[in-house]
Amino acid sequence: DTGDLDRLAEQLRYTGIRDLYVHAGPLEHDGTLPKKLYPKAGWLVEGLHERLPRLRVSAWLGDVLDTESPEGLSMA
Fold first, then answer.
1. Where are the alpha helices (DSSP H) in 1-76?
2. Phi and psi at residue 46, to the nearest 5°
3. Which regions of the chain are under pLDDT 70?
4. Which of 15, 35, 45, 64 has a C-alpha 20 to 30 A away from that of 29?
5. What is the rounded CA–CA span in Å between residue 29 and residue 14?
6. Helix or strand holding residue 68 (H, E)
7. What are phi and psi for residue 14, nearest 5 degrees?
8. Which residues contact 47 (CB under 8 A, 6 or more apart)?
9. Could you tell me which residues come within 8 angstroms of residue 49 by beta carbon, excluding any fewer than 6 positions away?
10. Residue 29's pLDDT is what?
11. Handedness of CA 64, 68, 71, 73 (dihedral sign)
């Protein structure tokens, strides 16, 4: 909601933070990221850029490993 976005922007405004990493995932084991996992990503990035034009927003991509879940990615 835009109220949450306004509050986040206010919290970041005077911190000196110029890069914000937003977690997206988990990835599929083939390295793709299903669109259903980030349906409002564009809204978030656009909203933050409207409020904080100098802020860079990047995705922090991750996966679940087999040490964390039976369906996780094997690194072996």
1. 2-13, 41-51
2. -60, -45
3. none
4. 45
5. 39
6. none
7. -110, 20
8. 2, 5, 9
9. 55, 57
10. 86
11. positive
